[in-house]
Design a protein that fits this description.
With 605 residues, the protein is α+β, with helices and mostly antiparallel strands. It has helices at residues 3-19, 62-71, 122-134, 142-145, 180-183, 189-192, 242-251, 263-270, 301-310, 313-320, 353-362, 392-407, 419-424, 500-508, 533-539, 548-559, 576-582, and strands at residues 40-45, 76-78, 84-86, 91-99, 102-108, 147-153, 158-163, 205-211, 216-221, 234-239, 256-258, 277-282, 285-291, 325-326, 365-367, 374-376, 379-380, 382-386, 411-415, 489-495, 562-567, 569-574. Helices cover 26% and strands 19% of the residues.
């Protein structure tokens, strides 16, 4: 019993010894290894555009062309001379394998895939074909209208495209493929999902973010790209006004600038010392003035001839785009080899008040001898001139057209709806330019828009199976705006740089119902000529007559569905340092100055 206190004392002593033992400090956390700053090159631009779908007239812009070149896969791409070459990173072969029916077979690169890890496959061909034949406001869709079937083989990595007739220009098709697995089941995705980016990449770069508020588009190296990686980690397209652009070039904040050519830009660049290297780069579009031909006051060909004789096209070009190339043909653009003016002697090539008066009078218009104003059916003649709100230069063109009409005695009003509305609807919202901002591109209330998928990672929609033949498809349907008005004249872009015959057929053919597209979309002007249609059909055939295009040009000058105005020009502005890093130039017409950006080197840190 007396031993218990001794044991207790020993235990207490041991505990005290443990308590007084020195405590070892915790190990120091590892020192983080500094991460190298991403290599980056900044390109200044003057506008981001309305969206980034390269197949929509509403989205055409130099930035859209740049993003399509860097991000989207194409079966054929133009080389430095503008000749189409097979892009073997996308397809290992593409050839005509049958003539009855005319069939082209594509073998796709087994490694080619989107940044969602979904293969670039037959379903992407099917999606683009379906949209190009059924959606309003697309550019250069005639070739897709000739396709009767798209068949999938080898798990989607081989594609057979069957045509209703021989089509020699087939190599121009299936450029800038879009990710069908993300877009095809989303309502309105053809327009809405590409407003704020492209939801997946199949090229050397991927879009990380589009910040419209700050005016930045951030691209990064596509780490899943199966070919040679880009030298740059990042490429930034940054919206800047002319003075900020000039300052950025001077202090090295931007490396290259791609502004439109206008007096303000020229003045800002003129103050730089040393003077930068400036190269003109014609854009793959021609700005035109469309005249509504299917209904309204210009449905009469003589009225269109009269109005066309009022318009001073040279004055418009000089005021809006003095460095643009004057356009005087409906097919080839001024920058293309073989271009020449096609206007005959009696065509409305320049203002002619006498011709205007004669043609309008023949169409039933009457001019007051006291006021000089024109009337139609006893009411003042009134024309609505439309331009897309997002296209600033187009709005300026529309305002000048309205001024010229008013000076000639024709009442004119300018409206500026969204580009998607203007090029896709029969009637548009009567929104004047001064209040035309309306819903922004990210606003889901914008007609036809859906929220853009995130381009910065996160879960993606599940992929779905490729469809191999022609399912019934429906176009994106935009509701008519309340209180809408019919536009009589509209400023619109025409795509150039593809097959000239197909582009003429795309702009002026009469759309015909088919089993899969019961109500085909009308072209933006509503023009349709049964007498001209056989010639347009001939242009996309295997053996057009040598003078077929000339005959089409002559007929179009006579019927005047549009008046060609000018081909816009982008300025490629660089410094000796950035020239050494990029070797930047105008590039091929279809892909533009950023062609080859995957090989650009970063500026020294």
């Amino acid at each position: 019993m007396q031993r218990i206190p001794v044991l207790l004392i020993m235990l207490l002593a041991l505990l005290a010894a443990c308590t007084n033992a020195p405590v070892s400090p915790p190990p120091a956390p590892p020192v983080p290894t500094p991460q190298p700053r991403p290599t980056e090159l900044v390109v200044g631009v003057d506008d981001l555009g309305a969206g980034f779908n390269p197949h929509l007239l509403a989205h055409l812009s130099p930035v859209t062309t740049a993003l399509a070149t860097l991000v989207l896969p194409s079966v054929f791409r133009p080389d430095s001379a503008g000749v189409l070459r097979l892009d073997r990173t996308v397809a290992t072969s593409a050839e005509v394998v049958a003539t009855e029916p005319f069939t082209v077979s594509y073998e796709l690169n087994l490694e080619a895939s989107w940044t969602t890890n979904t293969p670039i496959a037959a379903e992407d061909f099917v999606y683009l074909w379906e949209r190009m034949r059924s959606e309003p406001g697309v550019g250069d869709g005639a070739g897709y209208q000739l396709i009767t079937q798209v068949r999938s083989r080898a798990g989607g990595k081989a594609v057979d495209v069957v045509f209703g007739q021989a089509y020699p220009a087939w190599q121009h098709l299936f450029s800038d493929l879009l990710p069908a697995h993300l877009l095809k089941d989303a309502p309105g995705s053809w327009t809405g999902a590409t407003i704020n980016g492209l939801p997946a990449s199949g090229g050397p770069f991927r879009i990380v973010s589009v910040d419209r508020a700050r005016g930045d588009v951030l691209l990064a190296r596509n780490d899943l790209y199966w070919d040679a990686p880009t030298v740059l980690d990042q490429l930034v397209l940054r919206r800047l006004d002319p003075n900020a652009m000039a300052t950025g070039l001077a202090n090295g904040d931007i490396d290259v600038a791609l502004p439109g050519s206008d007096a303000e830009v020229r003045a800002a660049l003129g103050g730089l010392t040393p003077a930068p290297h400036v190269q003109p780069a014609p854009q793959p579009t021609v700005t035109e003035l469309g005249l509504r031909s299917d209904t309204g006051p210009l449905a009469d060909q003589r009225a269109r001839q009269g109005v066309a004789a009022i318009i001073d096209r040279e004055a418009i070009r000089a005021a809006v785009a003095p460095d643009a190339l004057p356009a005087d043909a409906f097919g080839l653009a001024p920058s293309q080899p073989g271009y020449s003016a096609t206007a005959p002697a009696n065509a409305p090539a320049r203002p002619d008040p006498v011709q205007a008066g004669q043609q309008l009078a023949a169409a039933g218009w009457t001019r007051s001898l006291t006021t000089g104003r024109w009337t139609v059916d006893g009411a003042p003649a009134r024309l609505i001139v439309g331009a897309a709100a997002e296209r600033e230069a187009d709005v300026r063109v529309a305002q000048l057209v309205a001024e010229q009409l008013d000076a000639a005695g024709v009442d004119a009003e300018v409206v500026a709806p969204s580009a998607v509305e203007l090029f896709g609807l029969d009637t548009v919202a009567a929104v004047p330019p001064s209040t035309s901002a309306g819903p922004g591109p990210t606003d889901p209330s914008t007609p036809g828009a859906t929220p853009a998928p995130s381009t910065a990672g996160g879960p993606e929609p599940a992929a779905s199976a490729t469809t191999g033949s022609a399912p019934t498809s429906t176009a994106t349907t935009l509701p008519p705006p309340p209180g809408g008005v019919q536009v009589d004249l509209l400023v619109l872009p025409r795509t150039v740089g593809g097959d000239p015959g197909s582009e003429l057929a795309s702009g002026f053919s009469c759309p015909e119902p088919t089993a899969v597209v019961a109500v085909p979309p009308r072209n933006p002007t509503g023009f349709c000529s049964s007498s001209l249609q056989p010639l347009l059909d001939e242009l996309v055939s295997a053996d057009p007559r040598p003078d077929a295009a000339t005959a089409v040009e002559r007929a179009l000058w006579n019927q005047v569905p549009v008046l060609p105005l000018f081909q816009p020009v982008t300025l490629v502005v660089s410094t000796p340092a950035s020239d050494a890093l990029t070797g930047i130039g105008p590039g091929p017409l279809g892909t533009g100055p950023v062609t080859g950006a995957e090989r650009w080197r970063p500026p020294p840190s």
